[in-house]
Structures are given as C-alpha cells and as structure tokens.
C-alpha cells in the first residue's frame, strides 16, 4: 500500500491525478468585469436581430440576458457580439466572448476537437430547403442541378453535400457567410434554393417582401440540436450555463412563469419550486451564485415555453409550432435533469 501512496503523491505533484477541475478564468472574469460578453448571430429574426431602436431581440439574445440575470443579477449587463458562422468559434477560443449562443449545432467533433464544450440543447431543429413556390418542387429529389445558397463552415454545408452525393444528384453551391446575403440571393434569382435549418428558413422568409412566394419543403435531413458553447477552461462557468437553461425548462414543468415567480417564491410549499426559486438556497450555493439566480433568470425572460412562444411561436412572424421543442410531458424532447 505504501508504494501506491507514494505514486499518488507524485501524480498530485505533477498535476496528473484525477480531481475536480480547476476554477477557470471565465467565471471570475465575468464577475469582476460586471458584464457578460455573449456571441450571437449578425441578425436572424426570432434568434438575434436588433430592432429599430438597436435592441437585440430573439431567443438567443434573451438567453444571453437570462444568463446575465443568473450570473450578475441584472439582464441588462450583457454585451452582444454579432458573429458570422466562420467567426464564431475563433471568437470564443480567443476569449473575445464568454459564451456563444448562435444557432450552433451540437456535434461530436465540435465537442472534442476544438477546445470547446457544448453545453445543453435549447432548441431541436433539422436541415431543410427553401425555394420559390413557382418552382413547383415537392421533394428534394426533384432538386437535381439546382444552385443552392449555403453558409460555409456550417453543418448545413456538409449535410447538403452528403445528401446530394448519396442520392447521386448534382448541385452547385453558392457560399456566403451571412445568411441575409443568401436570402437576398434567393430573392434576386442568383440561387434556386437555400439550405439551412428549418427554423432559420422560417426566420428568413418572415423578412421577405412577399413571404408567401416561397415554400419550405417539409422533409428534414439531419438532427440539428442548438445549444450554448463555452471554452473548456472553466467547469464553474459551464455549470452556470447548463443549469440556467435547465432552470427555464424546469420552470415550465413546474408552472413557474415570469408573472407568478415572485408569488410562488414567497408562498409555495412545493420543495422543487422552493429550490428552483431560491427560497431554499441549496442550488445557488452549489453554483456559487446568489440563491435567487434562477428566479432572476425566469423573471427576466420567462420560462422556456414563454421564451419560445414570444420569439418563434405561432403568434410571431416566424410562426413555428413547438414540435420537438415541447416538454417531454407533451410529446417533445425538452427535459430538465432533476434539480435537487
């Protein structure tokens, strides 16, 4: 036993033994700076797009605000950094941003090979195609020979290439970084179709002058779960991001909303609600945050259902049904790990 103890001591001295991750710089830097630097899209309706007053609106923008509320107690303490698909990972790797919340598909190679950590899915989507309605295309196998606008460095570029090759069909790619440029190219006739995730297609179409002139094919060709991305250097910050998103999902499961959170925090006898809203401080203590961290996020942006309906739902110009993004109790995939 003595040699084993000596070996363990030697490994500890070299920093090689297993143990808790060192506290990284991101968590402490955000606290010290007093502002969250959040990477978002350069502009996609329903996700992150400045309004006429320059205020960023959409699901991704609001998730940034929710994180700022959880971490710093104030949803306004966030700096939005607009990034293209090509720029996004470099900006995170370099420390320009603290977290990337920008329609980024969670995939194995991204999680294991570029020094980043994919945190949790906040939206489930799938690759699709949009084209002019008068093209009379009913299914993708009729798209042989088309010119398709795509954004480079995305999973959509790979999905389109793989699908056409596997079906022995031809297409000509037109690669442009900004999805808005792809939308303009489609409307101007410089490409026959756009290939990207269905939610983005719906968002782009909502901004067209004549949206009804364009159709999104119903077929889906991939799994595209979106989620926040952080660097690998800070387990504490990773935990804050993961559990803030989980808290929004859990709040919907428990019936906690932006409107009733204050009353429920004060009067609810449900132990799950008391833990979630900080009446019982155990969850905040484990994250080294204020006991009201989740309460602050929910009050700022609502539970997950409120967030979806306000930014992407049927009553918005995007007009999306929740589909896979319903709660697990309603046939969807949204499911929070137990918060206890």
From TrEMBL:
PANTHER family the record matches: AMINO ACID ABC TRANSPORTER PERMEASE, AMINO-ACID ABC TRANSPORTER-BINDING PROTEIN YHDW-RELATED
Signal peptide residue numbers: 1-23
Solute-binding protein family 3/N-terminal domain sequence ranges: 35-264
Protein name: Amino acid ABC transporter substrate-binding protein
Stretches of the chain forming a coiled coil according to its record: none
One GO term (biological process): amino acid transport
Domain of life: Bacteria
SUPFAM superfamilies associated with the record: Periplasmic binding protein-like II
Keywords: Signal, Transport
Family statement drawn from the similarity comment of this UniProt entry: Belongs to the bacterial solute-binding protein 3 family.
């Amino acid at each position: 036993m003595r040699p084993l103890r000596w070996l363990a001591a030697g490994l500890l001295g070299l920093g090689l033994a297993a143990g808790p991750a060192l506290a990284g710089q991101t968590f402490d830097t955000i606290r010290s700076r007093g502002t969250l630097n959040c990477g978002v899209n350069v502009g996609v309706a329903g996700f992150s797009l400045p309004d006429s007053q320059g205020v960023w609106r959409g699901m991704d923008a609001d998730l940034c605000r929710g994180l700022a509320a959880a971490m710093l107690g104030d949803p306004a303490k966030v700096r939005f950094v607009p990034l293209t698909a090509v720029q996004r990972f470099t900006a995170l790797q370099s420390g320009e941003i603290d977290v990337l919340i920008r329609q980024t598909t969670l995939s194995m190679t991204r999680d294991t090979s570029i020094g980043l950590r994919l945190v949790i899915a906040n939206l489930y989507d799938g690759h699709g195609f949009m084209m002019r309605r008068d093209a009379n295309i009913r299914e993708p196998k009729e798209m042989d020979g088309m010119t398709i606008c795509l954004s480079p460095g995305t999973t959509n570029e790979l999905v389109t290439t793989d699908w056409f090759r596997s079906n022995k069909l031809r297409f000509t790619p037109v690669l442009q970084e900004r999805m808005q440029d792809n939308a303009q190219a489609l409307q101007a006739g410089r490409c026959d179709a756009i290939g990207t995730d269905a939610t983005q297609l719906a968002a782009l179409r909502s901004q067209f002058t004549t949206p009804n002139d364009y159709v999104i094919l119903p077929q889906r060709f991939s799994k595209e779960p979106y989620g926040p991305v952080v660097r690998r250097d800070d387990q504490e910050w990773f935990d804050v991001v993961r559990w803030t998103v989980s808290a929004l999902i859990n709040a919907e499961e428990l019936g906690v909303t932006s409107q009733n959170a204050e009353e429920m925090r004060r009067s609810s006898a449900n132990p799950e609600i008391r833990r979630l809203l900080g009446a019982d401080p155990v969850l905040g203590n484990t994250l080294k945050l204020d006991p009201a961290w989740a309460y602050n996020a929910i009050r700022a942006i609502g539970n997950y259902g409120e967030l979806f309906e306000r930014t992407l739902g049927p009553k918005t110009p995007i007009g999306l049904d929740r589909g896979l993004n319903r709660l697990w109790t309603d046939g969807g995939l949204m499911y929070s790990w137990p918060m206890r």
